[in-house]
Design a protein that fits this description.
alpha+beta; 8-stranded antiparallel beta sheet; 21% helix; Pept_S26A_signal_pept_1_Lys-AS; EC 3.4.21.89
Length: 190
């Protein structure tokens, strides 16, 4: 009797552990995943080694929006984290540190601090037009977005990679959970 009770107790523990691992696997694969920021391309918004949570399911219900911070597959081995700047059907250009979408000036509030600290002779974002970038598109094709890092002088983004297929986006991120002194939710203003 005691052996049977002990065997049932072990069986209950094994079932509980398997259930816990199964739930963790489902959450990690389909809902949320951790990511570590690698490099300075999103400074000052995100710092190298910031740890964040990626929401993997939000884009199953909605399309990416301008200024969302997204994680996408840049290659089979590497994911990048950048900010969505242009949406399908739009034309993107930068001239004299000003972003233009379809010829209209667009504010980038997350760059205000960097612009305020610039010297008059410095350039935050080199001039470009969508046509001059890889792919040579006149407008961003359907099913694609245009992404840039906040640290425009040190970012591998759509200026080098071309437009990013939405299907390569892993998810949206805005929660920094580590290190403790950086815990915050970053948004479109940050």
């Amino acid at each position: 009797m005691a052996k049977r009770k002990k065997r049932n107790e072990w069986f209950d523990w094994i079932k509980a552990l398997l259930l816990a691992f199964g739930l963790a696997f489902i959450v990690r694969m389909f809902l949320f995943a951790p990511i570590v920021v690698d490099g300075p391309s999103m400074l000052p918004t995100l710092h190298d080694r910031d740890q964040m949570i990626v929401n993997k399911f939000s884009y199953h219900f909605q399309e990416p929006e301008r200024y969302d911070i997204v994680v996408f597959h840049a290659s089979a081995q590497k994911d990048f984290i950048k900010r969505v700047i242009g949406l399908p059907g739009e034309h993107v250009a930068v001239e004299d540190n000003v972003l233009y979408i379809d010829g209209e000036e667009v504010e980038e509030p997350f760059l205000n601090e960097q612009k305020d600290n610039m010297k008059s002779y410095q350039t935050l974002t080199n001039d470009f037009t969508l046509e001059a970038l890889p792919g040579g598109h006149e407008v961003i094709p359907e099913g694609h977005v245009f992404v840039l890092g906040d640290n425009r002088g040190n970012s591998t983004d759509s200026r080098m990679l071309g437009v990013i297929p939405i299907e390569q986006i892993v998810g949206k991120t805005n929660l920094i959970y580590w290190p403790f002194n950086r815990i915050q939710i970053v948004g479109k203003e940050d």
